[in-house]
Amino acid sequence: MKNTKSKLKKLEAIFEEIGYEVRYEKGNFQAGYCLVNHQKTALINKFATLDGKINCLVEILQEIQPLPQELSEKNQKIVQKLISE
């Protein structure tokens, strides 16, 4: 899959579906995810390139391994494809 704004939007929709908030913040930090008081939040550097944002979201997906029942069939296929790349 080529890295495009459309792919970024799909990833954001997947995170929303599994209960994560994706936030783009400015700062000098590496992107990642955190749980604060049981709030699921993925923080992405707002100044990162499109490729950097997408790669970070994919890495987070690989780490949290969403359950299939949390996702629609369409998004399950997308996640499987992204994780296997």
User: What structural class results from the helix and strand content?
Assistant: alpha+beta
Q: List segments where confidence is low: pLDDT < 50 over at least 5 consecutive residues.
A: none
Q: What's the structural domain tally? A: 1
Intertermini distance: 9 Å
Strand content: 15-25%
Radius of gyration: 12 Å
Query: What series of H and E elements makes up the topology?
Result: HEEEHH
Q: What's the pLDDT, averaged over the residues?
A: 87
Helix content: 40-55%
Rough outline:
globular
Got a strand count? Answer: 3
Number of helices: 3
What order do the strands of the largest sheet run in, or round the barrel if closed?
1-3-2
User: What's the main sheet like?
Assistant: 3 strands, mixed
Question: How would you portray this structure in words?
Answer:
It is a single chain. The chain is α+β, with helices and mostly antiparallel strands and 85 residues long. The protein has helices spanning 5-17, 50-64, 73-84, and strands at 21-25, 32-36, 39-45. The longest helix is centred in the C-terminal third of the chain and has 15 residues, at 50-64. The model has no long low-confidence stretch (mean pLDDT 87).
